[in-house]
Design brief:
mainly alpha; two-stranded antiparallel sheet; about 180 residues
Length: about 180
């Protein structure tokens, strides 16, 4: 926030803005900023409705994006990289799972939601020996990434409702056209 922005706000409001930027939860931000728990939801909602506070939050978000270099372009590039990541990159030429430190970075940064390795044994007692391992990879939701890309680039590939404009009175126009055609012929 700039000095001009913060000078118009109370210390508590400025603190609310800082806290709000942590998790975008107005109620929690109000509590952390010193408002009572009983009135925090109402206070948070009222503050978000104030033009000066909305402007300060927007300015702080822009500054944070510039500082971190995370913006819409970065998010879209990242989603595209994740959507295009090849699962085959996790396996060696013998179709065995590579050690994690040999995985491409994109896979190590969240595409794999879990990895489970179980040993397979045969025999009992002193004759028991490991004969293999089962490796299970749980992947994160790649379809969700495609949905986010689709929404971001406005292809409407995942639009749940289709809005049509210019169809008001269409039924009346069709009925009138039928009457004209019927009376002409």
């Amino acid at each position: 926030m700039t000095d001009a922005t913060t000078s118009a706000l109370t210390a508590k409001q400025a603190r609310f803005i800082q806290e709000y930027l942590l998790d975008l939860n107005a109620t929690k931000a109000a509590i952390r900023a010193g408002y009572s728990k009983r009135s925090a939801q109402e206070q948070g909602s009222q503050m978000l409705a104030q033009t000066a506070i909305k402007a300060a939050i927007d300015a702080a978000k822009v500054a944070r994006s510039e500082r971190t270099e995370v913006n819409a372009d970065w998010v879209l590039r990242r989603l595209a990289e994740e959507a295009e990541a090849d699962l085959a990159d996790l396996y060696d030429s013998n179709n065995d799972l590579k050690p994690i430190d040999e995985w491409p970075e994109i896979w190590r940064q969240g595409l794999v939601a879990g990895l489970e390795i179980d040993a397979l044994y045969e025999g009992t007692g002193e004759d028991r020996r490991q004969i293999g391992r089962i490796k299970k990879i749980k992947l994160s939701d790649r379809l969700r990434r495609l949905e986010l890309i689709g929404k971001h680039v406005s292809v409407n590939a995942f639009q749940e409702k289709v809005a049509m404009s210019g169809v008001e009175g269409l039924a009346d126009r069709i009925a009138r056209a039928k009457l004209r055609n019927g009376s002409d012929g």
